[in-house]
DNA sequence: TCCCCTCCCACCTTTGAACTGG
DNA sequence: ACCAGTTCAAAGGTGGGAGGGG
């Protein structure tokens, strides 16, 4: 197996030669993904986006909506989204600012949300914007609905994966193209911390229309005011203060970590670096990797991709080690250091092109073992709370029942009934391997793809397990 | 005491079934 | 009988606030 560094080098420098695909190769290097409503995302990002997570699951707002181009019209693709930790810290909201509150908690089960239309031909994806509206976030680690599990007060960013595959079973043999947009990073919270974020959400989210000042919610507000006039008054003062936005409040988070931040006026456009914890980690990340937003934060077409291998969720310790110490993904050994934000670069690696070694399913990866491919090649599993059985399980389960893949939301819950192993099964036999897929890497060096067909191990694990640290 | 989480509430949009008219 | 447009109720998504746990 090739080292990550090697792969990265190959992919980014030599477009089509390295992975010269087989006869049926498709040109994927020209894929382009753009984020819809970039201005909205930016407006949130400038303040420090927060996403509510609840036990039953909460939608994102703004929700992820993208436009695609450069796909082969008749080739089928699967679109997926997962959430990657931005760093190895836990944050707290302290007086208008986000501050680091310690090391991040162990990563929850990694899951990937499969777009309901998957798989669909390129023409389908390109004819209109692709929305991940129904993607939900939860803080319930025992969630059975397939929602993406996150930790509150931790920071994440969504990753979009495009996989050329006829069905979910063949995903593992396909080339993955991964994209991220800096402005989509957010802090998962159970209750909004920054009132400016609350206001933005209310102003833009139709479901929150009832909370708009100029709305018709007079009844609700009136009753509340009557019920607790003092509190209402206090609230009003608070809101007023917010609208007047004290300078440091606006800059909030960033100040702590970015002393160089220019003091900005209200009318100034805020750069993403402003957001403190964020800025710090992003900067660090970019410094080391330079894979994120190569075109700069303001570039519309953030087709910056990180070629990652959706592979298994290698979890932090595991993956981290791969990155930092072992040139070979397959060489594994859990490194405690990797999971620590303090010890270097925790989860930052998650944004980097990576070929994840597939750890052996956690013991809890349970059942479905019968569906799994013998884990003979799998590395030892990392120890920890993570549930590796995750990702596409539900999707596969549903597919199995319905006989049709991708006609409904295919979450990737880590159900006990479906194992990652599903990825192995028939697919392994049907799809010979690596060489039959493409590989023409576009002119853009930042646009990478991975071909992981020869990674047998993957068949046993959740597909994009990003993650984790 | 503080921080964070959970639950419940009222308000709103979305969705889809039922109904109506051409 | 069929189709398109309209109506309406149920389902589901919001943020706020109260209260509780650590």
From TrEMBL:
Q: Which InterPro entries match?
A: p53-like_TF_DNA-bd_sf, T-box_DNA-bd, T-box_sf, TF_T-box, TF_T-box_CS
Renumbered residue ranges of the record's region Disordered? 1-22, 207-304, 320-384
What cellular-component terms does GO give this entry? chromatin; nucleus
Q: Where is the composition biased (Low complexity)?
A: 325-347
Output the SUPFAM superfamilies linked to this UniProt entry. Answer: p53-like transcription factors (SSF49417)
Q: Where is the composition biased (Basic and acidic residues)?
A: 207-217, 241-253, 260-290
The record's Gene Ontology biological-process terms are: cell fate specification; heart morphogenesis; pattern specification process; positive regulation of DNA-templated transcription
Keyword line: DNA-binding, Nucleus, Transcription, Transcription regulation
Signal peptide: which range, if any?
A: none
Q: Does the keyword Cytoplasm apply?
A: no
Q: Which domain of life is it from?
A: Eukaryota
Gene3D superfamilies named in the record: Transcription factor, T-box
Q: Where is the composition biased (Polar residues)?
A: 9-19
What name does the UniProt record give this protein?
A: T-box domain-containing protein
State the compartments where it is located: Nucleus
Q: Which residues form the T-box domain?
A: 35-213
Q: What is its main location?
A: nucleus
Q: Which GO terms describe its molecular function?
A: DNA-binding transcription factor activity, RNA polymerase II-specific; RNA polymerase II cis-regulatory region sequence-specific DNA binding
PANTHER family per the record? SPADETAIL, T-BOX PROTEIN-RELATED
């Amino acid at each position: 197996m090739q080292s990550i560094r090697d792969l990265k080098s190959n992919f980014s420098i030599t477009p089509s030669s390295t992975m010269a695909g087989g006869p049926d190769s498709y040109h994927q290097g020209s894929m382009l993904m753009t984020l819809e409503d970039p201005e909205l995302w930016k407006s949130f990002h400038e303040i420090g986006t927060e996403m509510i997570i609840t036990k039953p699951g909460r939608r994102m707002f703004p929700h992820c909506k993208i436009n695609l181009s450069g796909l082969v019209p008749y080739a089928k693709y699967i679109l997926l989204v997962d959430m990657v930790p931005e760093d190895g810290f836990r944050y707290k909201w302290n007086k208008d600012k986000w501050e680091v509150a310690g090391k991040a908690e162990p990563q929850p089960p990694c899951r990937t949300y499969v777009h309901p239309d998957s798989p669909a031909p390129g023409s389908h994806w390109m004819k209109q914007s692709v929305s991940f509206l129904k993607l939900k976030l939860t803080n319930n680690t025992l969630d059975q609905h397939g929602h993406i599990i996150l930790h509150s007060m931790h920071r994440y960013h969504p990753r979009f994966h495009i996989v050329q595959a006829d069905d979910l079973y063949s995903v593992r043999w396909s080339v993955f193209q991964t994209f991220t947009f800096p402005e989509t990073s957010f802090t998962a919270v159970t209750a909004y911390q920054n009132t400016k974020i609350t206001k933005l959400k209310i102003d833009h989210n139709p479901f929150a229309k009832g909370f708009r000042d100029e709305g018709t919610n007079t009844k609700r507000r009136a009753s509340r005011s009557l019920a607790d006039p003092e509190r209402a008054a206090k609230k009003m003062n608070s809101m007023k203060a917010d609208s007047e936005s004290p300078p440091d409040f606006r800059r909030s988070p960033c100040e702590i970590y970015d002393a160089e931040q220019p003091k900005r006026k209200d009318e100034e456009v805020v750069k993403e670096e402003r957001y403190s914890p964020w800025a710090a980690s992003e900067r660090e990340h970019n410094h080391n990797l330079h894979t994120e937003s190569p075109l700069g934060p303001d570039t519309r077409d953030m087709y910056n991709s990180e070629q990652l291998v959706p592979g298994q969720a290698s979890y932090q310790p595991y993956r981290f080690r791969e990155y930092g110490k072992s040139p070979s993904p397959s060489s594994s050994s859990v490194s405690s250091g990797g999971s620590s934000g303090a010890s270097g670069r925790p989860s930052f690696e998650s944004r980097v092109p990576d070929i994840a070694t597939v750890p052996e399913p956690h013991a809890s990866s349970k059942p479905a073992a019968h569906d799994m491919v013998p884990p003979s090649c799998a590395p030892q599993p990392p120890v920890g709370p993570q549930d590796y059985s995750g990702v596409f399980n539900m999707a596969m389960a549903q597919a199995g029942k319905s006989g049709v893949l991708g006609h409904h939301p295919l979450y990737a819950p880590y159900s006990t009934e479906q194992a990652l192993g599903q990825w192995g099964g028939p697919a392994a036999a049907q799809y010979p391997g690596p060489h039959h897929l493409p590989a023409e890497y576009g002119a853009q060096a930042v646009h990478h793809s991975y071909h992981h067909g020869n990674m047998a191990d993957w068949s046993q694990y959740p597909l994009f397990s990003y993650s984790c640290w």
